[in-house]
Write a structure and sequence with these properties.
2 strands, about 65% helix, Phage protein
């Protein structure tokens, strides 16, 4: 598990927004409501909850500085 600053990856950032799977799910309208990750994949949801609480993003840090 990682603690502290997350290193940004431009390649992964673009890939997440342009993936074929994402496009298909959004166009078919089969998106699950927020919070349903626990039903779909509880292990991944638990990991993500801990990861998001123990790390921070450099972009959110910059946003807070210039707010």
């Amino acid at each position: 598990m990682k603690f502290g600053l997350r290193t940004p990856s431009l390649k992964k950032r673009i890939a997440a927004r342009t993936s074929l799977k994402r496009q298909v799910v959004h166009r078919l309208g089969i998106k699950m409501p927020r919070g349903y990750g626990w039903l779909r994949n509880p292990k991944k949801a638990a990991y993500n909850k801990v990861y998001n609480r123990t790390t921070f993003d450099i972009f959110s840090l910059i946003k807070k500085l210039f707010k």
